[in-house]
């Protein structure tokens, strides 16, 4: 089972002729609201990859629909607290030429307390996974608690924050990050990825696939991506990570888990949207990757 301490956002898309200039008011000609946030995306991906996932998070009264949607997608939601503040959201202006501008507000995601996290993890069992990203609070407490309880701790270092990475580093077993984040981490720690005290590190490389650095076995293996025609790369990394941890939770070997996660990531970039369009196992099977 996966315990995912993660953000939940409402993604509000406003479609406009052009982006507003300072002081300008523009009427949007279309509006769409979807479920987003790295945490929610990973929970949905893990559920669609066929494993049990409990989301640990917080939303405001305006976010009840996000919890309902997670539930509908097979995510367990008993540890999503309803608190008296705005739900995290991203207001995304999309202009006709494809240019966008985004305002992010972390809202309830930054009101998650150690009590909430502790209450959830008290129900976890040794061998379960704790998964975290960087859009909430409490990562350090969660990592330490989970480690003490015998959970496996997986961390997606995005959006990259050097201070938080340094805090959780001693308690993580598996780190997932993209190339830019890997470079930032090496710069911060002054150490190469393969010298960090973490058993497994996966560096995703977009259309180039990924590499697996096993510091236990002292090996580095590269995995080429599955070729697809990409139309929207949003959420590829979140889909990859959710699938990877779910596959490991289902006891697949690391190479098999990576292959499945890359197939899910590849299908995801052929789709427009975030959590709502993350592929499930049947989509992957139907596509027939070789
Ligand atoms: P992030 O969104 O965090 O930057 P990546 O872009 O590295 O993450 O994507 C995560 C994974 O999704 C990659 O390792 C790869 O397997 C898959 N993927 C991403 N973009 C493509 C693409 N254009 N073609 C095929 N697979 C892709």
Automatic annotation (TrEMBL):
One of its GO terms (molecular function) is metal ion binding. Gene3D superfamilies: 3.40.1190.20. Pathway: Carbohydrate metabolism; D-ribose degradation; D-ribose 5-phosphate from beta-D-ribopyranose: step 2/2. Residues 7-279 form the Carbohydrate kinase PfkB domain. Requires a divalent cation, most likely magnesium in vivo, as an electrophilic catalyst to aid phosphoryl group transfer. It is the chelate of the metal and the nucleotide that is the actual substrate. It is found in: Cytoplasm. The active site is at residue 238. Substrate binds at residues 9-11, 37-41, 135, 238. Pfam families: PfkB (PF00294). GO terms for cellular component: cytoplasm. Its cofactor is Mg(2+). Its main location: cytoplasm. The keyword Nucleotide-binding applies. K(+) binds at residues 232, 234, 268, 271, 273. Activated by a monovalent cation that binds near, but not in, the active site. The most likely occupant of the site in vivo is potassium. Ion binding induces a conformational change that may alter substrate affinity. ATP binds at residues 178, 204-209, 237-238. Keywords: ATP-binding, Carbohydrate metabolism, Cytoplasm, Kinase, Magnesium, Metal-binding, Nucleotide-binding, Potassium, Transferase. GO terms for biological process: D-ribose catabolic process. Its EC number is 2.7.1.15. It catalyses: D-ribose + ATP = D-ribose 5-phosphate + ADP + H(+). The keyword Cell wall biogenesis/degradation does not apply. Homodimer. Catalyzes the phosphorylation of ribose at O-5 in a reaction requiring ATP and magnesium. The resulting D-ribose-5-phosphate can then be used either for sythesis of nucleotides, histidine, and tryptophan, or as a component of the pentose phosphate pathway. Belongs to the carbohydrate kinase PfkB family. Ribokinase subfamily. This is Ribokinase. It comes from Sulfitobacter pontiacus.
């Amino acid at each position: 089972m996966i315990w995912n301490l993660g953000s939940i956002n409402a993604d509000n898309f406003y479609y406009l002729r052009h982006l507003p200039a300072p002081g300008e008011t523009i009427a949007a000609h279309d509006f769409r609201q979807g479920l987003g946030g790295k945490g929610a995306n990973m929970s949905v991906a893990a559920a669609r990859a066929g494993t049990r996932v409990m989301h640990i998070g917080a939303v405001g009264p305006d976010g009840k629909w996000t919890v309902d949607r997670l539930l509908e997608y097979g995510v367990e939601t008993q540890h999503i607290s309803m608190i008296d503040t705005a739900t995290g959201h991203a207001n995304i202006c999309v202009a006709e030429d494809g240019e966008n501008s985004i305002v992010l507000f972390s809202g309830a995601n930054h009101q998650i307390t150690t009590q909430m996290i502790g209450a959830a993890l008290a129900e976890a069992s040794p061998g379960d996974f704790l998964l975290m990203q960087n859009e909430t609070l409490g990562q350090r407490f969660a990592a330490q608690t989970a480690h003490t309880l015998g959970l496996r701790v997986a961390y997606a270092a995005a959006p990259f924050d050097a201070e938080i990475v340094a805090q959780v580093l001693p308690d993580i077993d598996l780190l997932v990050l993209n190339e830019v984040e890997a470079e930032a981490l090496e710069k911060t720690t002054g150490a190469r990825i393969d010298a960090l005290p973490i058993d497994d590190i996966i560096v995703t490389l977009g259309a180039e696939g990924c590499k697996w650095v096993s510091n236990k076995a002292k090996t580095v293996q590269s995995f080429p991506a599955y070729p697809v025609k990409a139309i929207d790369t949003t959420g590829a990394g979140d889909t990859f990570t959710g699938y990877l941890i779910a596959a490991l939770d289902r006891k697949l070997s690391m190479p098999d888990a990576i292959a499945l996660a890359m197939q899910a990531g590849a299908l995801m970039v052929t789709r427009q949207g975030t959590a709502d369009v993350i592929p499930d196992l049947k989509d992957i099977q139907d596509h027939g990757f070789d």
